[in-house]
């Protein structure tokens, strides 16, 4: 460690040579020297030393990450070394690696120092980050790294780690960055409008076209960097709200900025704001309803209707509806049932009418599939969380479950898949339960709902009556299970239980081996072989 820390502390070597002199006479390129002409002089820096410094800090990162608490004796010294390097402009890798080390050093301190020391060290960490976030606002790529690693620091420190003054400073940093990014967005949108107006006039010359192409490339790089930074900021907001319920008043003050981003429908602003809204619904729960009537409901409704042209926007909105059902509480129920449930049903019924193929007017097929899967998952979340409200509103839960079943499988969005396949497993096991199975009162709420709606009844399956429609339903059921297992993205135990539940369900429907043979004969052989290779059969 001493030699590693020494390398990490290395300072860059500089040289200044008169413009008429040859720097290679004193500073050989093979020794790592690079020169650039500045104001009649040649300024040189030995880059090999910078690479050694960067490598040393990256090694510190590896040690801190792998050793955990065992790195504790070196954690404070390493923090003192790397935090000033947030401003080390000579080498980008040094800055990024330095920021990445910090959360691992904080984690190494847990259990190795007393609480007073932890608070003091964490306070210095917060100060370093907040100063750098403002100072580096022209480098949005590094701003992204700062916010991402700052969020990791907060997760290490735990609930309530930021005091009131620190929360206010975080808020002020976000305001400054939001104003800067919004100004950039407005400037770009203004330039686009001006270019579009100019394009309606005379054609441009060749040189002007080349200059325009260069401007577009620079613009794209700037947008990408801003997008990454804003994504890290949104994750930081989520983390802060999760750990600090008292931060909600600052969210109220930030909300007008979120709404300004929502107006950026041609760029990333709208998509970003939707992700923030989703996080607020999840993290704030019923408290988020105060934003719903004026913001969430109209924006989500408009976004969902744009599924053919903007499926990514629709996906974020549909996901948000599911979060409303899961976390929003009863104040959300009327709008979910009257406004969003009909929209979800319409989307899924239209999708099924197209035989689950994207319609001809869909511009982004992959995004469209993600949106459909989120509509499917949100429908299930509505059924599970609003069950009694749906029943009291005279809405047919069996019809909703049948629509959910027909809209399955979920094969792209692995975050949503687990919940849906767990419920499918509940349907399978409750439909083929033995006399020794648990009573409904001892089951989880999800399993209790599944027990009320036997899968055979939902699918109109009459035992030992293998009609073509019945076989089709069993094939669809088997296909959704097999496809999920072949992709191997479900937890292993859930996959095994699904396959066992499927076989048990088919056997309980018909004891005839012919029925099972008919069903499996329609499962492609390559998928059956994949199940064998994965150890499922």
Spans of at least 5 consecutive residues whose pLDDT stays below 50 are: 433-442
Kindly name the structural category: mainly alpha
What is the C-alpha radius of gyration, as a whole number of Å? 29 Å
Report the end-to-end length measured between terminal Cα atoms. 51 Å
- Characterize the largest beta sheet: strand count, sense, and whether it forms a barrel: 3 strands, antiparallel
Strand content: under 5%
Give helix and strand order, one letter per element, not per position. Answer: HEEEHHHHHHHHHHHHHHHHHHHHHH
Give the spatial strand order of the biggest sheet. 1-3-2
Q: How many individual helices?
A: 23
Number of E-type strands: 3
Overall geometry comes to elongated
Query: What average pLDDT do the residues reach?
Result: 87
Helix content range: over 70%
């Amino acid at each position: 460690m001493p030699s590693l820390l020494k390398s990490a502390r290395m300072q860059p070597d500089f040289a200044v040579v008169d413009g008429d002199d040859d720097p290679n006479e004193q500073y050989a390129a093979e020794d790592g020297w690079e020169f650039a002409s500045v104001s009649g002089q040649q300024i040189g820096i030995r880059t090999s030393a910078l690479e050694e410094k960067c490598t040393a800090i990256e090694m510190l990162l590896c040690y801190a990450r792998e050793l955990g608490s065992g790195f504790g004796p070196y954690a404070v010294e390493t923090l003192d070394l790397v935090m000033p390097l947030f401003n080390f402009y000579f080498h980008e890798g040094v800055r990024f690696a330095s920021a990445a080390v910090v959360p691992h050093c904080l984690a190494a301190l847990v259990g190795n120092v007393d609480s007073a020391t932890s608070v003091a060290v964490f306070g210095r960490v917060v100060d370093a980050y907040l100063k750098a976030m403002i100072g580096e606002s022209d480098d949005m790529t590094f701003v992204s790294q700062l916010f991402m690693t700052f969020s990791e620091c907060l997760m290490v420190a735990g609930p309530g780690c930021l005091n009131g003054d620190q929360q206010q400073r975080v808020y002020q940093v976000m305001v400054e960055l939001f104003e800067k990014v919004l100004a950039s967005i407005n400037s770009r949108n203004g330039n686009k409008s001006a270019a579009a107006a100019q394009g309606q006039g005379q054609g441009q010359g060749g040189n002007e076209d080349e200059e325009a192409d260069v401007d577009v490339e620079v613009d794209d790089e700037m947008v990408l960097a801003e997008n990454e930074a804003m994504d890290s900021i949104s994750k930081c907001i989520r983390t802060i709200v999760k750990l600090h319920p008292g931060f909600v008043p600052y969210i109220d003050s930030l909300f007008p900025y979120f709404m300004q981003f929502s107006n950026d429908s041609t760029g990333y602003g709208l998509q970003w704001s939707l992700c923030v809204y989703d996080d607020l619904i999840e993290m704030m729960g019923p408290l988020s309803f105060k934003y719903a009537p004026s913001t969430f409901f109209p924006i989500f409704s408009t976004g969902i209707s744009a599924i053919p042209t903007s499926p990514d926007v629709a996906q974020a909105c549909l996901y948000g509806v599911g979060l409303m059902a899961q976390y929003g509480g009863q104040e959300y129920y009327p709008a979910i049932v009257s406004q969003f449930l009909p929209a979800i049903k319409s989307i899924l019924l239209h999708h099924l009418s197209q035989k689950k193929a994207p319609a001809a007017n869909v511009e982004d097929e992959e995004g469209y599939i993600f949106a459909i899967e989120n509509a499917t998952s949100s429908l299930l979340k509505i059924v599970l969380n609003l069950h009694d409200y749906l029943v009291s509103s005279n809405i047919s839960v069996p019809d909703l479950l049948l629509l959910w079943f027909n809209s399955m499988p979920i094969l792209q969005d692995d975050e949503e898949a687990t919940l849906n396949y767990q419920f499918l497993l509940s349907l399978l096991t409750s439909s083929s339960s033995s006399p020794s199975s648990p009573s409904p009162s001892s089951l989880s709420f999800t399993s209790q709902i599944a027990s009320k709606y036997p899968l055979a009844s939902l699918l109109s399956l009459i035992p030992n009556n293998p009609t073509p429609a019945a076989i089709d339903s069993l094939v669809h059921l088997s296909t959704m299970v097999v496809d999920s297992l072949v992709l191997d993205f479900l937890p292993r135990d859930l996959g095994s239980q699904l396959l066992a539940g499927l076989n048990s369900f088919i056997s309980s429907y018909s004891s005839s081996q012919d029925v099972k043979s008919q069903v499996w004969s329609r499962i492609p052989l390559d998928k059956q072989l994949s199940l064998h290779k994965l150890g499922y059969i």
